[in-house]
Design a protein that fits this description.
Radius of gyration: 26 Å
Oligomer: single chain
Strand order of the largest sheet: 6-5-7-9-8
Structural class: alpha/beta
Mean pLDDT: 93
Strand content: 5-15%
Number of helices: 22
Length: 526
Amino acid sequence: MPFIAIIIIALAVIGNSIPLILGFLKTPPGQVFLGTIHHPFDYFAYVSQFAQGQEGALQMQNLYTHEFTRSVLVGSVNALLGKFWSLAHIPPIPAYQLSVILFTIVFLSLAYLFIKELFGTDKNSCWKSVVAFILFITASPLPIPERSGSIWHITFVDHWFNFGNPFARLGFVPHHLILKSSILSIFLLAILLPRLSSSGKRIAAVIAIAASSLIAANIDPVQWLLAAAALLVVTMISAGASALFVPPIIVILAGLPMVVYLRTLFSRLPYSQLSQWEVTQQVHITVFSYLLANGPVVFLALIGLWWFCRRLNPARQLLLVFNLLGLGMFFSPLPERLGLSNVRFTSPFNMLLFAGVASGFIHVISARFRAKHLVTGILVGTLVLLSVPTTVSCIQKYEADTDVKSAYHYLPPSVIQFFEQTRSISSSGDTFFVLWPYNVPFPGVTGRRSYFGHPLLTIDNQQKELEAYEFFGGKMDTGRMQTFLLYHRITYVVAYSHTLPEQDLPILTKVLESPILTLYRVQPVK
């Protein structure tokens, strides 16, 4: 990998960390930033998997409901990461953020290696790869000037999971980065396998492909299916050259059992709630709006697609088929009929294709001029400059979403210490009844089960929110409060200090107290 690619990766990692850095800089006095950049409910659910992994669990439990205590394979990748970072005694939240940095580097390194395969032995392939890499990282939606009264500002077309947004393309979720890295690993190893000289290396490559397939299937079966289908299609159209590819059967055999397992799991509570919610999350946009949301690089790529298709090497075939299948599904009604959101069929590999095609076409244009390097620089510089306004707008939105008054983003050190002490005196089998809003970050920091706290992972969440309102708001009489705690087998209660009628609740024993919160143990009276 050339030094310039390493520099680009370093700058990209720093750039992707800007929302996190701004969150730290906004920290009010006497508060601790929780690292919340992703959606808070999902973020703390993911961090809770890190916390469980730090205690040695490789199979996960949903810590946001008390009825479903079975261990599952959802989130096992995060558990492994939690276990890895625990060897250096790094807590779950810093471990999560370090994992984002680590796998951003891994993903971008693999992306550059794959881009190199796109250009193969082309003349000036190194610089074509560097240009494509720069465009892949910096591309953003087309900036659109808009007037509001007497003030002009920049707007842009955006949608949920818009991978035209550079921050969505990289993201702030470790297992999403691992998914992207796994798919690129499958493609790269499939391409490189015929070049390996020894049987030992080929066997190692096959094992690595199988492992990558299993990981991808565990994280996102839809993206795994697209990767497997792309391998299968390319193998079928490469008549007489199928030996150039690892047989898709390896990928299918490694990942299919996991897909079947997840399909069964997500047909039952509480995970069926996620499936029911997802089918309602359809993004209906026109093709033109999609192009605007991905920015100027796409328009250049459309013009240069003919050049890209003139020499379809294996890498180009895989990327082209993968994206044609995915975008075809995205714009079709099939995902909704299958009970899936259509955004599951989009990915950062859309922009990887656009950037690769655009880079090749830029070199076709610049080759017509005597000062071709200058022309290349002007074209690339223009595309990068066009990405600046919308990238800045994205950063401003992330900063605005980081609420300094929200317990989902910031907590006092005394509450963090209270959570850590709670973890040390309890066990993984305990159920905690935690008042809002602390019930949301609680499982992430402690790795302990909360009675409720996630609208899609908590069974009967609305009813439980009502019960919590009545319990902590003084709407329940003490007899009903005791019956409620015993019936639901709650072992601990976390409430604001001095708010519960302790003298009238003999089943509660004060265990831990902080300036803000108090921990009670539920002990049935004999």
